[in-house]
Specification:
18 strands, 227 residues, 11-stranded antiparallel beta sheet, mainly beta, 47% strand, Trp_RNA-bd_attenuator-like_dom, AIM24_sf, TIGR00266 family protein, Double-stranded beta-helix, 4-stranded antiparallel beta sheet, AIM24
């Protein structure tokens, strides 16, 4: 299996070359095109009950696509829904990542995807819903962001604060707590800032340069209000 990013920047695609019999997992709807030797299957990662819980509690799509080169070698083209960058990691079977639910694009057949329920307070206040994805195993992992993606490498005990809406992924071994962005609830609301994650290293954090919720609010001001 080989993968590469085409047209890097705001509107990338990922090309994956599959040997006969190989397959990849991809976010539902991510496929742009493929060779005729590739079959598309839908799969509920993590089992039916886990997938159904994610659907009911977060509203997210709980089917992943399995793209399999069943009838010979072929290629697949993938792209995220929103404009932004794509980063490809090679997982080594040891390091795992926590990925927010919109950050996963695709992964090799050797990776494992597990939905993890956050604590109630984190799920209600964290801005990423009750479920996040824990991804490990070996092979390619492609993640996408809204806007540019930025990598932060934390030294042991180094702290870094990130607005929740700008999170993409972080090392599973990196601890974090959710806090108010400003001192006091009133200050948080009046400053326009909400909640943040305080990470403590060692580990890696990936963030995105744009806030999906903020962009949606900006768009709404141009939508005529029906009377």
């Amino acid at each position: 299996m080989k993968s590469e990013i085409l047209y890097p920047g705001a509107f990338p695609m990922v090309r994956v070359e599959l040997a006969a019999g190989e397959h990849i997992k991809a976010e539902s709807g991510a496929m742009v095109g493929s060779s005729p030797t590739v079959d598309v299957e839908s799969k509920m990662e993590g089992g039916f009950l886990g997938a159904l819980s994610r659907k009911l509690l977060t509203g997210e799509k709980f089917f992943f696509q399995t793209l399999r080169a069943s009838r010979g070698p072929g290629e697949v083209l993938l792209a995220p829904t929103v404009p932004g960058e794509v980063v490809i990691l090679e997982l080594d079977g040891v390091n795992e990542y926590m990925v927010q639910k919109d950050g996963f694009l695709a992964g090799a057949e050797g990776i494992n995807i597990e939905s993890k329920m956050q604590s109630l307070s984190r799920g209600l206040l964290g801005g990423e819903g009750f479920f996040i994805l824990k991804i490990g195993g070996k092979g390619m992992l492609a993640m996408n962001s809204f806007g540019a993606i930025h990598k932060i490498e934390l030294r042991p005990d180094q702290e870094y604060i990130v607005d929740n809406s700008h999170l993409v992924a972080w090392s599973a071994t990196t601890s974090y707590n959710i806090e108010k962005a400003a001192s006091g609830w009133v200050a948080s609301f009046t400053s326009g800032e909400g909640l943040v994650c305080r990470f403590r290293g060692p580990g890696i954090v990936y963030i995105q340069s744009r806030n999906p919720g903020g962009f949606g609010s900006w768009i709404r001001q141009f939508i005529p209000v029906s009377e």
